[in-house]
Amino acid sequence: MSVLKHVGVLSLAKIMALLGLVFGLIYGILFAAIMASLASIMPGAAALGALGAGGIGAVAVIAIAIFGAIFGFIYGAILAFLYNVFAGWVGGIQIDLV
Question: How far apart are CA 89 and CA 92, in angstroms?
Answer without folding.
Answer: 9
